[in-house]
Amino acid sequence: GSISGFHDEL
Amino acid sequence: MNIFRLAGDMTHLASVLVLLLKIHTIKSCAGVSLKTQELYAIVFATRYLDIFTSFYSIYNTLMKLVFLGSSFSIVLYMKYHKTVHRSYDREQDTFRHWFLVLPCLLLALLIHEKFTFLEVLWTFSLYLEAVAILPQLVLLQRTRNIDNLTGQYVFLLGGYRGLYILNWIYRYFTEPHFVHWITWISGLVQTLLYADFFFYYSQSWKNNKKLQLPA
């Protein structure tokens, strides 16, 4: 999921 | 992190390492499309810009560095290494891959999750990754014979994409609001591009004959 707009997948 | 995503990342890692090792050991890049490798370098460069701004995990940062390092070293090997660059099939690797970059950039400017510099480039890298394999698939069709390492490379890449789709299905059912249409659709398109390659690859294994792709 995008935690604070952050992409956790490579 | 789930087993599908971990397996997908490991398969992706294996694909780039297989390719890098092939080029490094036999000092040849016959059958490898430089255009696809250049596109992948751009994909990683535009996707991992957040490596400087946000830290998610050691694993995440480490893998980003490995993918950046391996993709750029493959391109540098193929372009500038005194022996390797001579085995690059320039006449056959003629896919106009720059024609892929612009539409992906325009599409990212139109369809994205957030209109910020990093987010638009991240979305661009998703769209570009979906089509980055095209020059390589065209080259394989042209040269018609697939030496097994290049075939393995494409096979592993397809496997990584397939595992990622399982990862998204798993996350959709286990994380309440995990919905990322852009990632899912571009990932699906990319995986479908491998589908026909997989068909011919499996055929060649079944009949135990050299992989001949239809012209």
TrEMBL record, chain B:
TM spans (from-to): 55-77, 98-115, 121-140, 152-170, 182-201
GO molecular function terms noted in the UniProt entry: ER retention sequence binding
Gene Ontology cellular-component terms listed: endoplasmic reticulum membrane
GO biological process, one term: protein retention in ER lumen
Subcellular location: Endoplasmic reticulum membrane
Membrane-protein topology: Multi-pass membrane protein
Full protein name: ER lumen protein-retaining receptor
